Predict the structure.
Amino acid sequence: MLLSIIFAVLSLGCLIRMILGRHHPLDSYLYRIWLLLLFIVIAYFVSFSIGIWILALICFTTLREYFSLIDIRLQDRLGILGGYLSIPFMIYYIQTGWYNMFVLTIPVYTFLAIPLLVTLGGKEKKGTVFSVGSIVLGLLMIVYCLGHIGYLARLSIWMVVLLLFCVAACDIIAYLIYHRIHRNFMNILARYLLPIPLTVTIAILISTLADISKMHAAILGLLIPLLVIMGHHTIDYVKVDLGVTDDTLLPGRGQILDNTKSLFYVAPIVFHYFHHFCM
């Protein structure tokens, strides 16, 4: 019941924003959170096997945007195709609960296949290292890391709710202080310390529903703001290298990548923390 109320309120907020037609920097982020909540709601109330494909869509659109931004060669198309094909395989392993294959397929088998596919795509050898590295980085950060949200939802839907709420709190606070604190160290310190009371409170409140102890919930509440900062820092460097700035964010031009950057470190580390210490 609580989950449906949260989703209904967020859906109403998205609908109002669309009707008003006023654009705000947080609008695209709001729609991305709505899409993730849609995945959770369908997985919880309808079918996990259906809802998980919404996560596959998020992985695909984010990876597609990333590939459109990197200076990739035409002959790398087989490597790119291999990257896209890794998504349905990963989703299948999540659906069936095949944990060992989920953990190993992308960082072992796919990472071995990508260099081979890139070299089979053409005879030009110059640029191979850049192409392989770029494709592998995209698969690691986008497909593999985001995929952990899906497996976490298979284990506990409310753990994903806890994760998303804490991440959203960190992102909103980071947005509010972005233009107010200009010193780098003070900015990072504020972005870590200010969300902690909120993230710890959220985690403890949801801990009963997620079936974890309040101690573990408090630890996650302390850990998530740090992981969000790590995701922001890493992807901000990647964006600069790709020629994307915050002033020119558009769908297909870094906006999707920017909206999901908070999850790249949070998703796998929270998943493994829950899997090893809370189950």
Summary: The two ends are 24 Å apart (CA to CA).
